[in-house]
Amino acid sequence: MDSVTIIAMASIITAGICMGIGAIGPALGQGRAVQGALGSIAQQPDERNSLTRTLFVGLAMIESIAIYCFVISMILVFANPFWAYVIKKAGG
User: Fold this and answer.
1) For 80, left (φ over 0), alpha (ψ -120 to 50), or beta?
2) Cα 84 versus chain centre, distance
3) Over the stretch 29-73, which tens digit does the pLDDT of each residue have?
4) In the chain, which residue ranges form alpha helices assigned H by DSSP?
5) Which of 37, 70, 81, 82 has its Cα between 20 and 30 A from that of 52?
6) Contact assessment for residue 28 and residue 66, using Cβ atoms and an 8 Å cutoff
């Protein structure tokens, strides 16, 4: 197995791990945020609008973590910074 194949395999495996962790963490965080917001709304229905607005801002912040992991995975698969170096070394 040559070095280009090893770099390709490492990139794909790392991208998969990044997406797996990047999906699990925000999913758990969003679940806890919604749980907390619904509990708070149930206790204080008059503050529903304020809690909902804060919940959506928090969900957007949590979702940005998942998007960041997705971007890193796409960079590893399609624009790996090590490709030019490995191709140059393998080619001569």
Assistant:
1) beta
2) 26
3) 999 999 999 999 999 999 999 999 999 999 999 999 999 999 999
4) 3-43, 48-78, 83-91
5) 70
6) no
In the structure encoding, which two tokens stand for residue 2, read together? 């040559």
Tokens of 80: 């790996």
Q: By C-alpha distance, which of 88, 90, 91, 73 is closest to 11?
A: 73
- Token pair belonging to 61: 């912040």
11: tokens are 């990139």
Predicted model pTM: 0.73
- The answer to whether 51 and 40 have CB atoms below 8 angstroms apart is yes
Residue type, 12: I
